[in-house]
Amino acid sequence: MARPVFLLACALVLLASSLASAAVVEHSLYVKNLTVQPLCQDQVVTAANGSLPGPTIRVREGDTLVVHVFNESPHNLSIHWHGIFQLLSGWADGAAYVTQCPILPGNTYTYRFNITGQEGTLWWHAHTQWLRATVYGALIIRPRRGNSYPFRKPYREFPILLGEWWNADVIAVESEALASGGAPNISDAYTINGRPGDLYSCSSSTYKLTVVQGKTYLLRIINAALNNELFFKIANHNMTVVAVDASYTAPMVTDVVVITPGQTTDVLFTADQSPGVYYMAAHPYASAEGVEFDNTTTTGIIVYKNAISSTPEMPDLPAFNDTPTAHRFFSNLTGLVNGPHWQPVPTEISESMFVTFGLGLVACEDNATCSGPLGERLGASMNNASFELPTNLSMLEAFFYDVDGIYTTDFPDQPPLEFDYTNSNNSFNTSIVMTTKSTKAKKLAFNSTVEMVLQNTALIGIENHPIHLHGFNFHVLAQGFGNYNPMSDPEKFNLVNPQTRNTIGVPVGGWAVIRFLANNPGIWFMHCHLDVHLPWGLAMTFEVEDGTTTSTTLPRPPLDLPQC
Question: Which region is the signal sequence (predicted)?
Fold first, then answer.
């Protein structure tokens, strides 16, 4: 009898220790209009807590985060906690019309969720229209008290948020494009922590970071830009990647980071150069040929304490279209096996999907003039289904209350037509380029394992697309160029130590294979994280059914859930 009592006592001590190490962390976000002048002119934007970017939220693994959002802006609003699993808290995911109706102007909503099994760098952002251009901030998850990083503790750590700036009302930019059926105006600048840097004429400020020679720092890099993937470098310094999307990686030394909108990358860098002043810089990786883009460069300055020079050295950034460098970076990342929260690759596959995605055209309305190619509207689709958000009720409410007419569960596992997907001769083939709007979900049984081949197409144009999955991480088994070959490409699968992500840049004119475990009931959004493509329809959803126990069943919605 003594041994069971002893074991029970040990278990209770461990439980008490675990509970004691977790906390309830509470924040408030006041979202309202703000006049700023980062570049040449005053501009009214929507921002959180009077700053751009918004406040950094810091928690520890195991904590419960409570955030009160006060919408004092003139726009509908929701806040997405990008990369958070939201285990049994799908009501807090923040995808407007998918998991909630938006918070109306003048209203308030409280997001409450536990953060379990995750640590690293994530972020939060608006998930309505183009508001995330200015409504965003870092979400940093440190290890639970008593635990440590799986690398040497840095001297200090800093969030580095890469943004995109328009000298215009971004809601108007988006609305004008949607009204015309054509492409939106490109941005005027990029930013580092809200500041364009001193390479722009009449830039208001440059982000500066002071370092001590010989010390090692952790930079938590977040690409919060709306529509551009970015190259990031620090003059004369290497970096060591230790995590992506809040998942630890095997250390990878590099002189350049490539990062898509939605992704995060944690790097260690040591101030090991002569005391001086060095630029950190970012400019676009523009993989689409013949498409206009903002080709400017944002800079910050790293200043050594007791620097002997005041003139910053500039890094040699890759060419805008340097796909080999981008692919080398993305494909060389591997997971940290047996590191904190490492999950092995599921081996038994329940659902196999082959999903083509890219741009397309939607028929212009009768008696209308549209500015897209061939006189039609620009659109986008996955398996030729161009996603359209509902407006009367969120999809998650329709799922929970079993309401018909909001969405259907017939998203196809295969494209409706097989063709030479990456052949640019098909770019404007009218027999395959047209698509239609719908609101579709793929139904999944609880705890099923899903393998998806994400196949880029050449319709309208070829480019690298960042695809983000809400509610789950996925293993990246392989990626490559051209059309996926189901006979030979599985031989390239990394089933031992693949990188784990929530957002993947599918190679330009290529493919990627991902695998994930659907262990979280609810409705989960999968979409392109280029905001220019999301309203065009490059998205779909998963309906994950409840499990068989209370602990695997989606709970009732909060009483203050916003209504449409």
Answer: 1-22
Residues in Cβ contact with 263 at an 8 Å cutoff, skipping those fewer than 6 apart? 222, 223, 244, 245, 466, 501, 503, 505
Order of strands, edge to edge, in the sheet holding 277-285?
207-211, 298-304, 277-285, 229-234, 257-259
* pLDDT at residue 409 tops 90: yes
- How many beta carbons lie within 10 A of that of residue 338, not counting itself? 9
DSSP code of 145?
T
CATH number (domain holding residue 292): 2.60.40.420
- Angle at the Cα of 481 (from 480 to 486), degrees rounded to 5? 65
Q: Which residue's entry shows tokens 């309830």?
A: 24
Residue closest to 123 by CA, chosen among 248, 223, 273, 249: 223
- Chain centre to alpha carbon of residue 145: 27
> Helix, strand, coil proportions of the chain in percent (round to 5)?
10, 40, 50
The boundaries of the domain holding residue 263 are 156-334
Under 8 Å CB-to-CB from 399, ≥6 apart: which residues?
A: 522, 523, 543, 554
Mention every residue, 6+ apart, whose C-beta is less than 8 A from residue 120.
141, 243, 245, 246, 247, 248, 264, 266
Q: Is residue 273 part of a domain?
A: yes
Among 394, 360, 501, 520, residue whose Cα is nearest residue 448: 520
Does residue 514 contact residue 476 with C-beta atoms inside 8 Å?
A: yes
pLDDT level of residue 289 (50, 70, 90 thresholds): confident
Q: pLDDT above 70 covers what percent of the chain?
A: 96
CA–CA distance, 112 with 207 (Å, rounded to integer): 33
3-state secondary structure 226-266: CCCEEEEEECCCCEEEEEECCEEEEEEEECCEEECCCCEEE
Same domain, 239 and 373: no
